[in-house]
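[step 3/7] fold_predict: job queued, chain A
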Amino acid sequence: MIQHPIPPFYDKDSKILILGSFPSVKSREQMFFYGHPQNRFWKVAAAVFEQDTPQSTDDKKEFLKRNNIAMWDVIGACEIEGSADSTIKDVVPNDLSRILDTADIRAIFVNGKTAEKYYNRYTKDVTGRPAICLPSTSPANAAWTMEKLIAAWKVIREIPQDKA
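[step 4/7] structure written:
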């Protein structure tokens, strides 16, 4: 059983929560999300927000904070071979309450079908909130070009940022 080693990234100003499935080997080594150089998350997010692509972990954290984005994964522990989502089993979900109790999250997005599957199976009934599934930024999702990913991910810009 592999435990998720990366703490959730959020603060009280977070409005958008983006959840992956489980961190890749590279992300676990770097101790931050979407660490594999072939994963397109940071390029897509930067294009959506019309900002430079963050490179270092500190740059990535600043990017998330500046854009009121919280980030974590649906799965807190599981059996997995390498980074292959298709091998995930014996799932223990993460408890999202610490994020949802602290931040004014206006929308929850999941990065890909695997995150959606496990969110719907383990987390949706606990939070009482649906998650919007966006196409995976993983290099395994080769059918989606950068242009198509950016267009689909632009929905995250539509979340109101002002105080309710």
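[step 5/7] annotate
DSSP finds six helices and seven strands in the chain.
The domain at 2-157 is CATH 3.40.470.10 (Uracil-DNA Glycosylase, subunit E).
exit 0
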